[in-house]
Amino acid sequence: MRADTAPLPPSPLDQWPPRWAPEAVVFDCDGLLIDTEARWVQLQDAYLARQGVTLPPATRRSLTGASGQAVSIVLAEHLGRDPYEVGEELMAEAMADTGHTPQPLPGALETLRAVAARRPVAVASNSPREMLDAKLTGLGIAGLLGASIAVEDVAEPKPAPDMYLAAARALGAEPTQTLGFEDSEAGARAARSAGLQLIAVPSVPGQEPAAPRTLASLADPALRTWIESWEPRR
Fold this sequence. Notes:
The protein has helices at about 35-50, 55-65, 70-80, 85-95, 110-115, 130-140, 160-170, 185-195, 220-230, and strands spanning about 25, 120-125, 145-150, 180, 195-200, 215.
């Protein structure tokens, strides 16, 4: 059962491929462009397991795509510890996780580059600025972006709408005429609350983000055909 069961309003994405074209496009990063989200979940679960704690499935599901601060608070509640200390320990483990080299997810870079050739593009991520910039530079896409929104740039992280509203504003687009791409339930709620049209591409098992259109991969051939039909406006 999907956590977010409210009926979705009509969307131009109900038709596939759509006849509509966006003014701008905003991508999530972790779990959408790069395979870091699943690894981050594994690190959290391993951290808890060493202390004899397992999260209830509903709690684990709700934390996927959440900010590091939100994750630390919830984990600290289950451990009976200080959230700041838990956050510091989790960050240290993430920084020390050199055995996993993040890789772009299928179709991610090709899709972003195809979009960037035709529309203004942003990335909106719950990652801290330093980590987000490192990921974007490592992917070789920083120069393609009109904006990047990190957790420090807004009052509230996803699932609040702040990041997507800030991204659309930075690109000079109306939120309702902006297309978002997300992989998590928390991120999907953020994009929809901001008024964006949304394509979900879930990559972590158990996540069922509610969106007008869900794809198995950014390598979807119909997606690429649709993007290539947009008249360039950059």
